[in-house]
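Attaching the record inline, Q. Sequence:
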Amino acid sequence: SYTKCIGASSEAPDMKKDCGIEWISHFTNDTKSLVKEVKKLPFPAATTLTSVALAEAGQELVNGREDANTVVLVVTDGFPLSQERTKTAAEKLMEKARVI
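Structure, as predicted:
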Protein backbone atom coordinates (compact mmCIF):
# COMPACT_ATOMS: atom_id res chain seq x y z
CA SER A 1 0.00 0.00 0.00
CA TYR A 2 0.99 3.62 -0.49
CA THR A 3 1.55 4.25 3.22
CA LYS A 4 3.99 1.35 3.41
CA CYS A 5 5.86 2.63 0.36
CA ILE A 6 6.39 6.15 1.67
CA GLY A 7 7.43 4.99 5.15
CA ALA A 8 4.20 6.08 6.88
CA SER A 9 3.46 2.56 8.14
CA SER A 10 5.17 0.43 10.74
CA GLU A 11 5.18 -2.44 8.24
CA ALA A 12 8.03 -2.76 5.76
CA PRO A 13 6.81 -2.90 2.17
CA ASP A 14 7.53 -5.53 -0.43
CA MET A 15 8.97 -3.07 -2.96
CA LYS A 16 7.80 -5.03 -6.02
CA LYS A 17 4.41 -6.19 -4.74
CA ASP A 18 3.36 -3.15 -2.69
CA CYS A 19 5.16 -0.32 -4.49
CA GLY A 20 5.65 -1.58 -8.04
CA ILE A 21 9.40 -0.96 -7.82
CA GLU A 22 11.66 -3.60 -9.27
CA TRP A 23 15.44 -3.55 -9.56
CA ILE A 24 16.63 -4.58 -13.00
CA SER A 25 20.33 -4.15 -12.32
CA HIS A 26 22.71 -3.22 -9.54
CA PHE A 27 26.01 -1.54 -10.42
CA THR A 28 26.82 -2.41 -14.02
CA ASN A 29 28.85 -1.08 -16.90
CA ASP A 30 27.11 -3.48 -19.31
CA THR A 31 24.65 -0.99 -20.73
CA LYS A 32 23.78 -3.14 -23.76
CA SER A 33 22.50 -5.96 -21.58
CA LEU A 34 20.70 -3.47 -19.37
CA VAL A 35 18.87 -1.99 -22.37
CA LYS A 36 17.77 -5.50 -23.41
CA GLU A 37 16.40 -6.17 -19.93
CA VAL A 38 14.51 -2.87 -19.80
CA LYS A 39 12.94 -3.55 -23.20
CA LYS A 40 11.57 -6.85 -21.88
CA LEU A 41 9.73 -5.20 -19.00
CA PRO A 42 5.93 -5.31 -19.17
CA PHE A 43 3.93 -2.13 -18.76
CA PRO A 44 2.97 -2.16 -15.06
CA ALA A 45 -0.29 -0.16 -15.38
CA ALA A 46 0.03 1.06 -11.79
CA THR A 47 0.93 4.16 -9.82
CA THR A 48 4.33 5.70 -10.39
CA LEU A 49 6.21 6.14 -7.11
CA THR A 50 9.22 7.81 -8.67
CA SER A 51 10.20 9.48 -5.39
CA VAL A 52 10.43 6.09 -3.68
CA ALA A 53 12.47 4.65 -6.55
CA LEU A 54 14.90 7.57 -6.37
CA ALA A 55 15.28 7.10 -2.62
CA GLU A 56 15.98 3.39 -3.19
CA ALA A 57 18.68 4.32 -5.71
CA GLY A 58 20.24 6.68 -3.18
CA GLN A 59 20.36 3.90 -0.58
CA GLU A 60 21.95 1.57 -3.13
CA LEU A 61 24.86 3.99 -3.53
CA VAL A 62 25.98 3.18 0.01
CA ASN A 63 27.36 -0.05 -1.49
CA GLY A 64 29.25 1.69 -4.31
CA ARG A 65 32.86 2.72 -4.66
CA GLU A 66 33.67 6.24 -3.50
CA ASP A 67 36.01 6.81 -6.47
CA ALA A 68 33.43 5.74 -9.12
CA ASN A 69 31.65 8.11 -11.47
CA THR A 70 28.12 7.45 -10.28
CA VAL A 71 25.23 7.61 -12.75
CA VAL A 72 21.64 6.69 -11.93
CA LEU A 73 19.38 5.94 -14.89
CA VAL A 74 15.69 6.35 -14.10
CA VAL A 75 13.12 4.62 -16.29
CA THR A 76 9.50 5.43 -15.61
CA ASP A 77 6.16 4.67 -17.19
CA GLY A 78 4.48 7.98 -16.50
CA PHE A 79 4.09 10.98 -14.27
CA PRO A 80 5.10 10.68 -10.61
CA LEU A 81 2.38 10.27 -8.03
CA SER A 82 3.89 13.18 -6.08
CA GLN A 83 5.82 15.78 -8.05
CA GLU A 84 6.94 17.51 -4.85
CA ARG A 85 8.36 14.32 -3.26
CA THR A 86 9.97 13.35 -6.56
CA LYS A 87 11.68 16.73 -6.90
CA THR A 88 13.00 16.50 -3.33
CA ALA A 89 14.23 12.92 -3.84
CA ALA A 90 15.89 13.84 -7.15
CA GLU A 91 17.69 16.82 -5.62
CA LYS A 92 18.96 14.65 -2.77
CA LEU A 93 20.13 11.93 -5.19
CA MET A 94 21.88 14.53 -7.40
CA GLU A 95 24.14 15.33 -4.44
CA LYS A 96 25.59 11.82 -4.83
CA ALA A 97 25.18 10.97 -8.51
CA ARG A 98 24.45 12.14 -12.00
CA VAL A 99 20.76 11.41 -12.56
CA ILE A 100 19.48 10.66 -16.05
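The chain is about 35% helix and 5% strand. The two ends are 27 Å apart (CA to CA).

More tomorrow.
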